[in-house]
Amino acid sequence: MxxxxxDQKREQLLFRDTAGRALRIVYNxxxxxxxxxxxKKVVQEKHHKHKGSARDGAPVSxxxxxxxLAKKEQTVPEEHSLPRTDEVAKTAQQPDVAKLEKSxxxxxxxxxxxxxxxxNIEKLAELSLTIEEExxxxxxxxxxxxxxxxxxxxQSKILALIEAYEAECARLNPTG
Length: 176
Known about the structure:
With 176 residues, the chain is mainly α. Helices cover 82% and strands 0% of the residues.
């Protein structure tokens, strides 16, 4: 890839701020911190919302002490009125819910690994071009190419693992 082609590709990939100017290089490597923070917040909210609704069977709308008191009030009368067979079925279902929650946490971490892997591939591509085109260090070009290949192989394998693990989480989910 020539330097001119690299510059054109880079221009296409550059993120822009609200004024249309290219973001600083640190944002190209790491992403805009506002977007990263927002994405993290959304994932956490989804995780916590799913975690609460899986336990109670109802959407989570309250937080804090009021929610805890309401939850205690709901569970105390139900415990005394349930027959023994329902209690056995409920305890058998609780490990499945716990297993689902833990599996979803693992899935989230796998997706985080994949996100960082994508970033590593982008950084390695930039470094490779710098080493080959600007610095003309051919001896290191092969070495960084090997690292790039290994990271690309990791990316492929982590994507396949995520796909399989999502299927497993869907299987464990009683509502889906």
